[in-house]
UniProtKB/TrEMBL annotation:
Domain GGDEF: 417-547
EC assignment: 2.7.7.65
MF-aspect GO terms: diguanylate cyclase activity
Positions where 4-aspartylphosphate occurs in the chain: 184, 310
Upper taxonomic lineage: Bacteria, Pseudomonadati, Pseudomonadota, Gammaproteobacteria, Alkalimonas
InterPro entries on file: CheY-like_superfamily, Diguanylate_Cyclase, GGDEF_dom, HPT_dom_sf, Nucleotide_cyclase, Rev_trsase/Diguanyl_cyclase, Sig_transdc_His_kin_Hpt_dom, Sig_transdc_resp-reg_receiver
Protein's name according to its UniProt entry: diguanylate cyclase
Length: 547
């Protein structure tokens, strides 16, 4: 367990201790209120019963979370009993009230002896220390495959090491902890020693390795043998390095997504803090808003993937809050999960009809909370990505990249920092399509997209502007620096060997750069970069020109 997780565990335990202390202190108030109920006259009993009902409702929703599920169940039963009296609006008779008081007394005595049931294993999605640059180990009896992959994948920043003997492979695995093993498998049979090693690598909890198999021919039997070894990809010789790189990127992108963000809106400070710690322990980011009125500010600053909303809050209810969220188009896609100890399914459905996507009944186990939130966040992120990202390259789509450029121009205007806009276009790309087909053309486009993602900063904006055109916005970057970066990418791209129909070929691109003039619109700035691109094409292609 990492230091951060140790720390979270410690905080959870402290929180439980505070909860128990608060619970013990609270019993005298509960007993006093229950005593008042006994003595209350016809007109006063409802308000006391209402207050008690709320107390037991809160207890029913929180006790299980803090390791006291039995107490939670008993509190729920008392809440329901009070609810039944209030529903028919009839003062309970003396015997019922006395029995009620006894049950409260019993519960209070018991609660100090109840043992906390600490949660078992918590949900922790695998640790991801991946970068977009992969460590690739090639195991092949001849050195050719290693050499080929080395020259094809190094331009993307991947580290490729090739070994030819099992003993060396073992040593390399220990030393380098590869992300990917490329196994040259000329036959379907693999020696047992190698099988065992591969199996161990794949199951490594800290750093599982992904297996790609390279075979001699496209056949069902070979593919099946690869599947049985646990391969995530099967390629045939001569290998198409661009296709392999695409697979690697997909793998890495999936693993190094930014952490999911969860906004928790709950007026119960301790419970909200507990949920926050559980969600953080599961590798997500969580922010708590205890005051519903501050929720919109929380939303703006945090941009959550999921909102967890308490249903019963004093100022306004969860469904009301959910409707306020849904007033804004920008939050329409964010899933809202209600958290409530409400067990009446009709009321749950009513809440969902108003707004909201899911209902979690309190108490929920820590594991179930983390899994539900993680799954919702993952799905929401996928959908959001699909809406704004180009399916071939994973880059921002035309409209989104233009929007992002406008945002960057506004930011640059405020911060007075330099911003560069760049337009890139593949050279003679029609010929690539004509000669090798559209599919290979697509691979070339994807490779350039991957290279751009690899070489540019996280803060840079990268979009697919048109078929074989890309638009970039490089904030806080001088024109000179941007020229150097683009030239470096241009050279790396030129060095990538593509292969099709047993032929190898390379591609180039041209680029036009402009320092953004914040007085101009984003379209006008794009136009300036486009003119520079035209100059680059006119001056012979495979070059970078400035506006
Ligand atoms: N494979 C593939 N080809 C595309 C895609 N989008 C556009 N293209 C092709 O890209 C080619 C662009 O050709 P042109 O605009 O004539 O330019 P070019 O051949 O690249 O020549 P220059 O830009 O002048 O160097 C066309 O053949 C389009 O069909 C795509 O998504 N996939």
């Amino acid at each position: 367990m990492s230091a951060k997780r140790d720390d979270i565990q410690q905080q959870l335990e402290q929180l439980r201790a505070s909860y128990l202390a608060q619970l013990q202190q609270g019993w005298s108030d509960v007993m006093a209120e229950a005593g008042q109920l006994l003595e209350a006259d016809n007109s006063g009993w409802q308000s006391i019963a209402q207050a008690l009902k709320l107390r037991f409702h809160t207890l029913a929703g929180s006790a299980g979370t803090f390791g006291l599920p039995e107490l939670g169940q008993q509190a729920k039963a008392l809440e329901m009993e009070l609810g039944a009296w209030l529903d028919i609006d009839r003062r309970p008779d003396l015997t019922s009230k006395q029995q009620f008081l006894e049950r409260v007394q019993e519960l209070s005595n018991h609660s100090s002896h109840q043992q906390q049931q600490l949660p078992s294993t918590l949900f922790q999605p695998s640790d991801d220390e991946f970068t977009r640059k992969a460590r690739i180990l090639v195991f092949s009896k001849d050195g050719q495959l290693g050499q080929q992959l080395h020259s094809a994948l190094e331009p993307f920043g991947h580290q490729v090491q090739s070994v030819q003997q099992l003993e060396l492979l073992r040593a390399a695995v220990l030393e380098r902890q590869p992300d990917v093993l490329m196994l040259d498998m000329p036959q379907q049979r693999v020696p047992q020693g190698l099988k065992t090693l591969i199996n161990t690598m794949q199951k490594d909890e800290q750093h599982p390795t992904v297996l790609f198999v390279v075979g001699e021919k496209e056949s069902f039997a070979h593919s099946l043998a690869a599947v049985r070894l646990g391969a995530a990809g099967y390629f045939i010789k001569p290998v198409n390095a661009a296709a392999i790189e695409l697979r690697i990127q997909r793998l890495l992108t999936k693993r190094q997504q930014a952490r999911f963000r969860v906004l928790i809106v709950d007026d119960d400070v301790m419970l909200a803090r507990h949920y926050q710690l559980i969600i953080e322990q599961a590798g997500m980011e969580a922010k708590v808003v205890n005051d519903p009125a501050k929720m919109l500010i929380g939303l703006q600053g945090f941009q959550p993937d999921v909102i967890l909303l308490d249903v019963n809050m004093p100022e306004c209810s969860g469904p009301e809050l959910a409707q306020i969220i849904r007033f804004k188009d920008e939050w329409l896609g964010v899933p809202i999960i209600y958290l409530s100890s409400e067990t009446d399914s009709q009321r749950q459905l009513d809440a969902l009809v108003k707004a909201g996507d899911d209902f979690i009944s309190k108490p929920i186990t820590d594991q179930a909370l983390a899994v539900t939130v993680f799954a919702r966040a993952q799905r929401a992120r996928q959908l959001a990505e699909m809406m704004t990202r180009d399916s071939l390259t994973g880059l921002l789509q035309h409209a989104t990249v233009k929007d992002r450029l406008s945002d960057e121009i506004a930011k640059a205007k405020r911060s007075k920092q330099e911003l560069v806009v760049a337009m890139l276009d593949l050279d003679h790309f029609k010929k690539v399509n004509d000669q090798y087909g559209h599919l290979i053309g697509d691979q070339v486009i994807s490779s350039l997209a991957n290279l751009l993602q690899q070489k540019l900063r996280k803060t840079d904006v990268i979009g697919r502007y048109g078929g074989e055109e890309f638009l970039l916005a490089l904030p806080d970057c001088s024109l000179q620096k941007a020229t150097d970066i683009l030239n470096n990418i241009r050279q790396s791209f030129q060095a990538i060997p593509f292969s099709a129909q047993e032929q190898s070929f390379s591609c180039t691109f041209s680029a036009g750069l402009a320092r953004v003039d914040t007085q101009l619109s984003s379209d006008e700035n794009i136009e300036r970069a486009d003119q520079a691109l035209y100059k680059a094409k006119h001056n012979g292609r495979n070059r970078v020109e400035l506006a």
